[in-house]
Design goal:
CATH class of the largest domain: Mainly Beta
Largest sheet: 5 strands, antiparallel
Helix content: 25-40%
Number of domains: 2
Strand content: 15-25%
Shape: rod-shaped
Distance between the termini: 16 Å
Number of helices: 2
CATH topology of the largest domain: OB fold (Dihydrolipoamide Acetyltransferase, E2P)
Number of strands: 5
Order of helices and strands: EEEEHHE
Structural class: alpha+beta
Length: 159
């Protein structure tokens, strides 16, 4: 995944960059008028990145996140919680049936939700101990200088 951003500060060997957060809309022609998934809200993100290309304040740079990192994060944030929900729900349902509890489905659903919350708590704790984002964000290329415009906040630069 690649993203065009602007350097807003340089601190030692790192650069603080700012840009529009990438979305699933990609290059869809209707993304400016579409209201799907809150796409009417402009999402600006700031990120600290190792400045291996020597970018300066105001430079427009290209960031890259390896696809494997994006897939790994998606797996941990979507697939694992769903798996935890199903397994814990089935186990809780079996336990509730065995013990003769009333409202077996409600108990199973609560067990599944508790497993999802426990997984997210564990993952957040694990992430805090390692790297804040878990992403291998790389600054790969200098695209040019930022050009101010009334209609856009980032310049379209030559590639």
């Amino acid at each position: 995944m690649k993203q065009q951003v602007t350097v807003i500060a340089v601190e030692g060997n790192d650069a603080i960059v700012s840009g529009r957060r990438a979305s699933a809309c990609g290059d869809c022609a209707g993304k400016t008028s579409c209201a799907t998934m809150g796409s009417w809200v402009e999402r600006i993100i700031e990120l600290r990145v190792h400045n291996k290309i020597g970018a300066k304040i105001g430079d427009v740079v290209l960031l890259e996140v390896p696809d494997s990192a994006v897939l790994r994060i998606a797996f941990h944030l979507y697939a694992m919680p769903m798996l935890a929900f199903v397994i814990a729900g089935l186990a809780t349902r079996s336990l509730a049936l065995h013990l003769g509890w009333p409202a077996v489905e409600a108990v199973a659903a609560l067990g599944g939700m508790a497993a999802v919350l426990a997984y997210y708590f564990w993952y957040k704790t694990k992430s805090d101990r390692n790297d804040a984002t878990g992403l291998d964000v790389r600054m790969v290329r200098l695209l040019g200088k930022r050009v101010e415009s009334a209609s856009t906040s980032f310049a379209a630069s030559s590639r």
